[in-house]
Amino acid sequence: MSAATAGSTGIGDPYFPGDGNGGYDATHYGLALAYDPKSRQLGGTATIDAKATQDLSQFNLDLSGFTVRSVTVNGAPAEFSRKGSELTVRTDLKDKAAFKVEVAYAGTPQPVRESSNLGSYGFIPTPDGSFVTCEPNGAKTWFPSNDHPADKATFDFTLTVPEGVTAIANGELAGQPKTTNGKTTFIWREKHPMTTYLATMTTGKFQVRTGTSPGGIPVYAAADPRFRTSLNSLYDQSGKITDYWATVFGPYPFGSTGGVVDDFAAGYALENQTKPIYGGFEPDEGIIAHELAHQWFGNSLSITRWKDLWLNEGFATYAEWLWSEHRGQGTAQQQFNDAYAGATDAIWKYPPGETRPNDLFNASVYTRGGMALHALRLEIGDGKFFPLIKKWAADHRYGNVTTEQFIELAEKTSGKQLDDLFDAWLFKQRKPAKPTSVS
Ligand SMILES: [Zn+2]
Which residues form the Peptidase M1 membrane alanine aminopeptidase domain (predicted)? Predict the structure, then answer.
């Protein structure tokens, strides 16, 4: 027997000690939210299904800003308090108990602005709606959650906006949007597990094109009127590239693919599950190939700790090189040669296998991460490399992964001892020797 104790205020990631929470596992988020672009007011309820992983006297959710009107646990009012981005809920739950939390809240969303090298992120109000990109920990700027990729859950979104505004979230639309009294409600469902940072509620004036890819995957593409000329190319490329990745990485993990081009000049794209978003520019094939590769690497297979971010960005960067090879625009070897020759000392001093919390999106995590995969391909040969990538995606579909697991699978698949190779490319603060092809 043991007394119930408080769930920890962080999920246990030493890089972001306040992110996520301990003591429970979120399994589903139901977000019923209304947003008014004119007043910039966001409000509604978040219903979270979870399971206790210890006897709990209290637990935390991550939520930044807003006024919380009420919290219930299993339908009964619960005491709560706020401190920084932590919403603490008093309760009395047994280990392994399934429970439902409902949080009613409203206010003006405040995006995160002090990010190391990503600019603003989170729920960003725009003149006609909102641009919502939450990596690494911006979900707290619009809904209460266990805001860390180690805790994935399914989602449904019931989003109400003024008539004429389109609300876009992850997954697929459940029926036609309904309009009453000048307000339109869009219901979206993401029935596959998703990390909180991939959730979106992008709203505004959009032109939309839907259909299916040549390979039969449903496609939803949307473009701000300022980018209307890119809608057809976004639609065509997204379908075609998703189909191609399914041949290289294995079956597409989600129910639909697509993308959103908004006129908010974020200067970046984010691989929001099922619908990458491109902030203020017309995406070219390379970046679409990158964001859609993330649907496998990052979205279906998610990191357990932020230090392993190269498992997302190294793979997506290498995918750009594979796409270029596929299109006859320069082989992966040529791309590798250019990257190796062009890499700065800063890249060789930053080991991508140990992402730094204050410099998470360093070029090394992308480029040297991609180079690590090419070095692996040269070491074990195409006959082992491509089956390894497919097996990696299949074995951990919808799950969480670590670098150690990837190294272990690479060694098992190839029958080779690969410590030296991964050490040189992922963990050493110096330039690895240029590898040569085995055949
Ligand atoms: Zn990326």
Answer: 286-425
Distance from residue 206's CA to the centre of ligand 1 (Å): 24
The helix/strand count (H/E) of the chain reads as 9, 24
Choose the CATH number for 23-120+132-201 among 3.30.70.100, 1.20.140.10, 2.40.50.180, 2.60.40.1730. 2.60.40.1730
pLDDT at 285 over 60: yes
Distance 298 CA to ligand 1 centre (A): 8
In angstroms, rounded to a whole number, what is the distance separating the alpha carbons of residues 163 and 182? 5
* Mean of pLDDT values over 69-80: 98
How close is the Cα of 95 to the center of ligand 1, in Å? 37
CA distance 268 to 362: 14
Q: Token pair of 38, please? A: 């004119």
For β-strands 166-168 and 202-204, DSSP reports them as antiparallel
Tell me yes or no: is domain 302-427 CATH 3.40.50.2000.
no
d(CA 353, CA 340) in angstroms, rounded, equals 17
Q: How far apart are the CA of 54 and the centre of ligand 1, in A?
A: 35
Query: Ligand 1 centroid to 221 CA: how many Å?
Result: 19
Strands (E), 239-353: 257-262, 269-270, 277-279, 302-303
| 3-state class (DSSP) for residue 344 | coil
Residue written as token pair 């040297």: 368
Q: What pTM does this model have?
A: 0.97
What does the alpha-carbon distance between residue 114 and residue 244 come to, in Å, rounded to a whole number? 38
Q: What is the mean pLDDT of residues 374-378?
A: 98
The span from the CA of 123 to the CA of 40, in Å, is 11
Q: Residue 76: helix, strand or coil by DSSP?
A: strand
Domain ranges in the chain are 23-120+132-201, 206-294, 302-427
Q: How far is the CA of 301 from the centre of ligand 1 (A)?
A: 14
Was domain 206-294 assigned CATH 3.30.2010.30?
yes
Q: In the structure, what pLDDT confidence band is assigned to residue 116 with cuts at 50, 70 and 90?
A: low
Q: Please report the pLDDT score of residue 439 as a whole number.
A: 43
